[in-house]
Specification:
By secondary structure, this protein is mostly helical. It contains 5 helices and no strands. Helix 4 runs antiparallel to helix 5. The protein is elongated.
Length: 129
């Protein structure tokens, strides 16, 4: 389920949606930077308060790296599985088409034509999506 605002922006196209998201993130980054800077100026931190920040930051970066590696691993596994399925289907279509050459009479070419039609429709479907 997409939000109405997202559906509205997606109607403009992918490029405009990407530009909008980029600008929104830049505005959020600038606002956060300014608020943090004001907080530091108003309330300077003591050394005891900032001693654990580097440890916390290292832990957050470690968690980020772990999450990214899992995401990439899952995406790669799905890609390889899909690639294997497409290769298997292509081999099955090619094998069926070659086996129609062994059929005598008018049935062989008729079945081969139907397999060629199926392959064209399947290719159009794959390219269209």
């Amino acid at each position: 389920m997409t939000l109405p605002l997202c559906r509205h922006f997606l109607g403009f196209g992918l490029a405009l949606t990407a530009i909008f998201l980029f600008l929104s993130l830049m505005v959020a980054l600038e606002v956060g930077f300014r608020l943090g800077r004001r907080t530091i100026i108003d309330h300077p931190a003591k050394m005891e308060e900032t001693s654990g920040i580097s440890t916390l930051t290292a832990g957050m970066f470690g968690l980020l790296a772990f999450t990214l590696s899992l995401s990439i691993s899952f995406a790669q596994n799905r890609y390889e599985a899909r690639r294997g399925l497409v290769l298997g289907e292509a081999n099955a279509i090619g094998t069926a088409w070659l086996r129609t050459k062994l059929i005598d009479g008018d049935e062989g070419p008729a079945i081969a034509a139907k397999i060629e039609d199926y392959a064209r429709v399947r290719l159009d479907f794959t390219i269209g999506h």
